[in-house]
Hexosyltransferase
Amino acid sequence: MSKPPRFDLLLVLLFTVIALASNSVTATPITQQFKEAPQFYNSPDCAVLVDEDESDGEASILCSDQAVHVAMTLDTAYIRGSMAAILSVLQHSSCPQNIAFHFVASATANASFLRATISSSFPYLNFRVYPFDDSSVSRLISTSIRSALDCPLNYARSYLANLLPPCVRRVVYLDSDLVLVDDIAKLAATPLGDDSVLAAPEHCNANFTTYFTPTFWSNPSLSLTFANRKPCYFNTGVMVIDLDRWREGDYTTKIEEWMELQKRIRIYELGSLPPFLLVFAGNIVPVDHRWNQHGLGGDNFRGLCRDLHPGPVSLLHWSGKGKPWARLDANRPCPLDALWAPYDLLETPFALDS
């Protein structure tokens, strides 16, 4: 007995719905829109870096030794966090017009969209977007305890000296899941001494051995890496980096050598952090902990809420699994997420409809 026509029609409709659903998963459109931020002006005692009549004023600031240079990665997954971070930097700066932003985006990303998104919310921002070739690092990445840590762009901080122009000699690197509540110029002015390459808040009471596998510690030729150093944990989401010294010491190659070893012998479990520790731990300039109150995203497995560390706060960092924008959208915020919310530039559906 033949099937009735209506049955065939229902089958066609069913397969159409399945196909559409499948496509929506693989090609999710970008729908986020952001408000324009207020314009922020220098205080009277700020240095004048360029004359207003200079046609290449932006380029001058982006290469000026007197500017505060900030480097961040930029992608569609974390764009909302990046926008909040930029706003917080500008809002608390005494010389916001003297800040140059250097954004690193994947070479496969929609750079024109990212650039237009930044420009529409910050029309007067001094910034440039640099393409990062994912293939340059993807072959070196080993799986870690959280898949988000395996994104090639997460390793871009190791390549800043190559990506940014040689005229940029010092930079403050910032993750996208943080906000500042203090003047970034104070952090940027951290003295690096005669030979240190970078500065960051150190945590010497952390159990340093947990960042590497028993295979690492049981191999004398590997564990002796720290023999003449007092290694301490530091979070790589907030760093002041002397790019000149980085280039002279070819530290990108040193980090890559550890990543190549990791591909052959598993010596760590946690993304891009351990290679930094292997190269720099014990040899950095310590910065006051107020400049990276990190871990506010909770632990890497459950994303449980955390409190601030004791002491003053200049920077709040939602490192860890939970991000404030995701928890706020899910109506399950942690108490400290309320400190991130005022910097959120996302247009609400109500505002888009009005």
In short: Residues 213 and 266 are 7 Å apart (CA to CA). The chain has one domain: 61-341. The longest helix spans residues 5-26.
